[in-house]
Amino acid sequence: MKFPVNERELERNYDVIMPEIDRLSLERVNHVWESWPDFVRQAGSWECLRDIHMMIFGGLFTFAGKIRTVNISKGGFRFANSIFLDKILPVISDMPQKTFDDILAKYIEMNIAHPFTEGNGRAMRLWLDAMFEREMNTRIDWRGIKKDEYLSAMQRSPVNSLELATLLKASMLKPQELADRAIFLSGLNASYSYERFPQISAL
Fold first, then answer.
1. SS3 of 78, please?
2. What count of other Cβ atoms lies within 10 Å of the Cβ of residue 18?
3. Contact yes or no for 187/143 (Cβ under 8 A)
4. pTM score, two decimals?
5. Of the candidates 189, 79, 98, 198, the residue with the CA atom closest to the CA atom of residue 145
6. Max intra-chain CA distance, the chain
């Protein structure tokens, strides 16, 4: 298998390619950990999310860190039209993020935008954690949230965010746990496991 792969190659052989990309991406945890203070400093911005996506998928996807140019859907839900993303992303970046409710609303809007062709969830949960750490001195312990519960809550979040809010509030790390690299790594593994389901479809 040759990397980086493009959108067409990924769509054609998704079930073979993505497990290997996940494996290689997770090997970069040291780089993510070492760069984490920089991500926290720019938390909530489009640039932060772009840089996270580039770090975990650079050299694996040809489109790492690049705004998608195709329309995509998952489970019958159509994400934001690609022609509007250039205008939508700065608006989301400028949304407030001082409170839990602010951060949750911003996360949901970015999920609706889904700015990348693939790897949105993996990158956006790190983006969410960076916001929580910057503003509230916590992160989410993804080990404590079951895949089915998370996916169900995310699916309903554009209409009703209560389920997602409840899951996240119940799984916040204590401040003294933030410096624990092992917790960070195991949480990242748990976060990646949410995405091992059928691929996003191009429209």
1. strand
2. 18
3. yes
4. 0.95
5. 189
6. 45
